[in-house]
Amino acid sequence: MALTGFDHLVVRVNDIDEGIATYRDRLGLTLDRTAESEALGIKQAFFNMPNGGFIEIVAPTSADSAVGKALEGRGEGMHTIALEVDDLDATCEAMKEGGARLIGEGGPQVFVHPKSTHGILLQLSVRQ
């Protein structure tokens, strides 16, 4: 089991347009694309980083989505750090043995619950 790299960060915001303006206009990043996921109940904006990886800004389309609930409870800010691993199953087993609480095992990506990581949701996946 090994973490092999950083993939991306996800920042939750109340308003996607304000989030885009912050990262584009104040921080000087270039907006790559926007999207919306009905399944997750979010609007998304993606900013590629020059040395690899990207920053994803998300805003809820519904207050009862996972991002909507996180905003309600924790406000705007860091939502997810996505990491690459060499072997997802082995990494999950090792993390569970270490006491981590996992979400979504068996899928192409697995999340480590924020209660296991001092308030940050970790996303684990193997780079395709």
From TrEMBL:
InterPro entries xrefs: Glyas_Bleomycin-R_OHBP_Dase, MMCE/EMCE_epimerase, VOC_core
One GO term of the biological process aspect: L-methylmalonyl-CoA metabolic process
UniProt name for this protein: VOC domain-containing protein
Family annotation (Pfam families): Glyoxalase_4
Keywords, alphabetical: Metal-binding
Domain VOC: 5-128
Coiled-coil ranges per UniProt: none
GO molecular function, one term: metal ion binding
Record keyword Repressor present: no
